Amino acid sequence: MAPGTNEKQPADTTKDDERVTALRRFAAAGRNWRRARLAGSAALLAVALTGGAIAFGASRDGGTAPVATSSAVSPALLASGSLDASIAALQAHLRTQPKDSDSWATLALAYVEQARTKGDPSRYPQAQKALKRALQITPGNDQALSGEAALAAARHEFAQALTYADQALKENPYSADALSSRIDALVELGRYDDAAKAADLADQRKPGVPVFTRYAYVRELRGDVKTAQRVLQQALSTATAKGDIAYVSAQLGLLAWNQGDYKNAADYYARALTADENYLPALEGRARTQAAMGDRADAIKGMELVVSRYPLPQPLVELGELYEDRGAKGDKAKAEDQYALVEAWIALARANGVNADLDTALAAADHGNKAEALKAARAEWARRHTVHTADALAWALHVNGQDKEALPYARQATATGYHNASFTYHLGMIELANGEKAAGRASLTKALKLNPGFSPLGARTARKALEDSK
Description:
Largest sheet: none
Strand content: under 5%
Number of strands: 0
Radius of gyration: 21 Å
Helix content: over 70%
Shape: globular
Distance between the termini: 68 Å
Structural class: mainly alpha
């Protein structure tokens, strides 16, 4: 059904504020909502969001929930306002050319990216409808199959994403979207050796920013930070579109932040925001870097801006922890509001077909129902074995007092050489809980040396644990 006929279309650019307001209105009762044990009521959430102008019925991550790697849509679409403009243009085109299967597939990919970047999972059913239309018009359309792969990945159905990517590559071995989605799926399934081979193949067949960033991430996961940095710097040197510059600069900023190199991280985020002042990962990264550098006031202001626009789980949790760390009058309640919003987002995501177990495990372990965190972490581990799911399961076991079982998972999370201070901190705390004092102290020291500001609450806890274990 062409846009503008009988299918209800989203107000892509005019309703974002109302969407966020509706989500906040629903979660404003978050404390009562949780006390009433209505956290799983997706139907109530749908009513609240529909009241806020989301056409719920009609309309990844690492970490939205986003997956850890980059999006399937060309980063050039992410320049300020260009994604919404592209969607509007595609909708207008399809009103007059409803049999254009490639445009239906492109529209679907844009919806997936819009959902990922704006924290609005209600776009996923729209993407599914557009992809179904594309494949009805042209069975075997490689762009549509690539879109199916991207949608499955966004919903955290990575085995399905891999299947669709392979199908697309049979139709078109040089599809940049399919090559990229295949890398994403293998990474998120924990098949890192296969992901490295897929990245090499993609680099041979279709070099470019989407492939370069994935190539770098695969190397980073295996502890090869120098190669990751070199590849990203090369990608940035060749980038000309504002969206590409913002995207790659933010990736470099995150890589630098993970190594505790806050000055370079700040510089890269500044470069990203020069290219696109509204680029969400750069806004979030800048606030995170400011917090690590001790500039709490600007960090809170910056993260408040991020979540006011796009209330995604990770920045919501980070803002809540910044409030807790500040500890001013009213900050405890403000923090609880952010954690309630995470629960609201997870319910919305699940209502739109997103597997949100990893988000649940990560948020609930420290700021919610610990038993639910463990249940979700076990479910996610049963689906895929990655460093992120190993870490989530280890920490969920730890907060539930099951430290003996937690230790092997914590060690697995750090076994690839991935430089992640949070993972190493979790390992250290679990080692201490198991009575391995020397190992625990060494891990906590390593985490703080790598990235001393990895978390406002986690870093403080690590320092206290070191002091207490002398």
